[in-house]
Amino acid sequence: MALLIRNVEHEHAVTDVLIDGNRFKAIAPGLPVGDATVIDGRGKAILPTFVNAHTHASMTLLRGYADDKELHDWLENHIWPAESGLDEHDIHLGARLACLEMIKSGTTCFNDMYWHFHGVARAVEEMGLRAVLSSVFIDFSDSGRAREQRALTRQLLSDATRYSDRIGFALGPHAIYSVSKDSLLWAKSFAAEHRLQIHIHLSETAREVQDCLKLRGVRPIQYLDSIGFLGPEVVAAHVIHLIDGEMEILARRGVKVVHCPVSNMKLASGSFAYARLRQRGVPVALGTDGCSSNNNLCMLEEMKVAALHAKLLHGNPTVLPAREVFDMATSGGADMLGIDCGTIAVGKLADCMLVDLSNHRLAPGYHLVDDMVYSADASCIDTVICDGRILMHEGKVPGEEQIVAEARAFKKRFQ
Known about the structure:
CATH architecture of the largest domain: Alpha-Beta Barrel
Radius of gyration: 21 Å
Oligomer: single chain
CATH superfamily of the largest domain: Metal-dependent hydrolases
Strand content: 15-25%
Largest sheet: 4 strands, mixed
Number of helices: 14
Number of strands: 16
Structural class: alpha/beta
Low-confidence stretches: none
Number of domains: 2
């Protein structure tokens, strides 16, 4: 299948963009139509879609369920008990709602950590997005549970081959306080054997640091480094409570970090020292976290909050400018997950969006990227394409009304 986007703005010029199969084939004015399906790009600009580098997609079902609580109370007394009642059917429903929300706000790839792998994978396949799905691992130092989790991880790795190449597989040891040392070392070895990424929460709260110091005599990043866990395959979410020495460890080990500013602020987890991490060369991408702690999956909002938070924290309005945070949300996330998307360029995977330049939030229109970061909302996005397939056109996603209705029906059953 070929798509030809005619007369669209790209890098301050009007041009045509040809997509052949799932990659950009040509970018030039006056391209021949041939047998391509034509999209009228007049009055629109083409941009790369967003990569949400840390989320728990199916937690859309818990949006607004347990707000305004401290993280550990929120997890232990509200979220984990609620999640215990969710089955694969529920997770599939929640993931479809998440995919819909991401498409509507310009995200076509996400890095997920949640239960019922197949429920999420089926939703991703049906909705046409990309995802790296983690096999969640929590054992609470229970050896029996650890054996079960390891067996499940092996089985899911085998099962994942049934899905398209839009779905990647990763390991998801939840955090140092929910996974034993033996299981962390097993995950490290298993990841090396199968060339997998490891997706983990790390140094998210002051309590996590205090508990680690009390139990092990060192801070969380120092602990993981001491057992040989850290490396370039590790994607660590949040990473808030750090000292300089830990930043040096992250840089030395090549660990990748995902900043989730809205969730961090809502849970009062702490401030993310963006400039200090980047000064040391630590790669940073953006994620929304789950809908029960955000409460949405909008990367447009995440970019703005990330930029404003960094400026305020560092007392410097030049820190994390618009282009830098836009790249974090697009090519930075793609690079972190090892996916060949995130830019509009010949040969790259055809993941893109058309934004409506007539939208009031993009006027008068001095700098499009600045407007996307500081002004735009989802109403600015007209068309979303992933892997060369149109997922949304003129602001409509096929079947969106049914997806929303199913989520509302779930609430009635859940309560």
